[in-house]
């Protein structure tokens, strides 16, 4: 039960509405402590409990919202 912080690269965001969509897409994921979306850099910094979810699962949820999300190498 360790918290991890990972960077997710998100392509396709163009405005504040896109940032809100990313937050909405990840709101229901159990285990996320914080998510900070940076529109200028097309990145999300996410801190989560790795016993409940994974960076890949979070990226997949963002993908399903219509963006191209990939986990950055740590």
UniProtKB/TrEMBL annotation:
Residues of the HMA domain: 4-70
Keyword Transferase in record: no
Annotated keywords: Metal-binding
InterPro entries: HMA_dom (IPR006121), HMA_dom_sf (IPR036163), MerP/CopZ (IPR001802)
SUPFAM superfamilies with a match to the protein in the record: HMA, heavy metal-associated domain (SSF55008)
PANTHER family for this protein: P-TYPE CATION-TRANSPORTING ATPASE
Name of the protein in its database record: Cation transporter
């Amino acid at each position: 039960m360790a918290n991890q912080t990972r960077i997710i690269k998100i392509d396709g965001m163009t405005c504040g509405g896109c940032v809100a969509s990313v937050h909405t897409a990840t709101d229901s994921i159990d285990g996320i402590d914080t998510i900070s979306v940076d529109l200028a850099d097309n990145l999300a910094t996410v801190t989560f409990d790795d016993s409940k979810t994974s960076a890949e699962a979070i990226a997949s949820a963002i993908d399903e919202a219509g963006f191209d999300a990939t986990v950055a190498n740590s």
